[in-house]
Amino acid sequence: MNDQPAPAPLLIACALGIEHLALRTGDRGGAGGPVTFVRTGMGPRAAERSVTRLLAGPAPADTAVLATGFCAGLAPGMHPGDLVVAEETRDPRGTVPCVGTELLVKELVRLLPGRTVHTGPLTGSDHVVRGPERSDLLATGAIAVDMESAATLLAAVRTGERPVAAVRVVVDAPEHELVRIGTVRGGISAFRVLRSILPAFLEWHRSLLLPRR
Questions:
Q1: For helices 149-158 and 44-56, what crossing angle results, to 10°?
Q2: Cα separation, 187 vs 170, whole angstroms
Q3: What are 95-123's pLDDT values in tens digits?
Q4: Residue 34 CA to chain centroid, in angstroms?
């Protein structure tokens, strides 16, 4: 028997406690709307289990899902605190197109003028990517990698047709590898950026509810 409460019409998924803290304590910018934050735990399997369990219960059939948190940038010239808006997420099990990429970019640029926003494929991994492996993933066309987004969106669309998106904050990059999040300037910068972007997610979701012309 599934006695967990139904998620709100917008489900925002992240993996780490520090990501969850940033999102829950972030400024909504005056934007309202019901939202459920879920900390899935680290790795694709944990993300898939958590999202599937939530959406297989009493969730509305059209609950939108947005995966967020930190990521590793793959392209030279990326910096901690840059934003990545996925056009699609991919892993060996499949590719999921994202919805409303242009709107998310527009809202993020408005919220954080001067902050670089990258768009392109976001690839999944089952481990932390370091060193030369970045070049191998970049050669596939991906611009960033994380461990949960692809699994999160794949689980979301497998439970029903729904809008999905992924927005990540670069916490390390080819020239800026981190050892631990939050202990160096790059990690702190990424945390602050993640705290500030919730209004863009809420506006993205609001736009999905508007009648199409």
A1: 30
A2: 9
A3: 999 999 999 999 999 999 999 999 999 99
A4: 18
